[in-house]
Amino acid sequence: MQQLQQLALPPLPVPNLGYACLNQTLRLRKPTIFSGRECRKRTFERRGLVHVSQLALANCIDLLKIVQWNHEHGIRLFRVSSNMFPWASAYHLDDLPDFAAACDALAAVGQLARSYGQRLTSHPSHFVQLAAQDESLVQSSLRDLEVQSQIFDLMGFAPSHWNKINIHVGGAYGDKPGTLLRFARSVDRLSADCRARLTVENDDRDTMFSTSDLLPLHDWTGVPLVFDFHHHKFCAGLLSEAEALEASLATWPQGIRPIVHWSESQEGRKPHAHSDLIMGPMCLHGREAEVDVMVEAKHKELAVIEFQRIMAL
């Protein structure tokens, strides 16, 4: 039903662009508006659940304001901060003193996003490593992913890749096949709802995982692949850009628009680093109307708005 409701909305921009985590315009306001308040571990240990509960509630309330701002500026794709509940793997969310209020705020976020046809996703940090050789790290990674899935549950989103939780495999440990097998076994330990949201992205180092490396993982687990154009430039594997894009898109379930990542290098920085803005051309190999594009640029929403202006010229 949710997918049908999404498809019934007005046509999406071509391509449909989004940004990640932080709205610079709102962040600079007084009082500031952003949904990634966090604290150091020692602060958490000293001040406890009351402190992180207050941070989390403020994050949830401000996320509603970000969703509203995105609607007013024609943006229908947004990556939610993975730090909305600081140190969330160390406690149960319902242990937080402000949990009920946070639930109300997240429910309002979900309702508003659905009414505007906005797609919310997440991308937990590189500390999430399902293929780690250290079991304690695998367990903490599983907890982090389940928390991300629970947050989408609290927003009222049915489990699907429409609200994806995107991660990387992590280090290859000098054994790509063995690492992918460990990853697949860890995926089996996730709840069905979390697995229904999980996606995996190609990397930007030859020692890590290209799209061609990840295709067997999809065959084993059914997890869709997110294609990152910028990463492919540094870790192409056996496929051309167009071939890797098509292979990734084919892993997505019918009825769910695939998401791809677009970023560019900036002159004077390390080639892997993201630029402030994107200037294009954005070549999506004829798939412009069929994918959502997460723009990964330093200037966040400003990069999206500027590129939309360029496309309109």
UniProtKB/TrEMBL annotation:
Pfam families: UvdE (PF03851). The keyword Nucleotidyltransferase does not apply. This is UV-endonuclease UvdE. Gene3D superfamilies: Divalent-metal-dependent TIM barrel enzymes. Keywords: DNA damage, DNA excision, DNA repair, Endonuclease, Hydrolase, Nuclease. Signal peptide: none annotated. NCBIfam families: uvde (TIGR00629). GO terms for biological process: nucleotide-excision repair; response to UV. GO terms for molecular function: endonuclease activity; hydrolase activity.
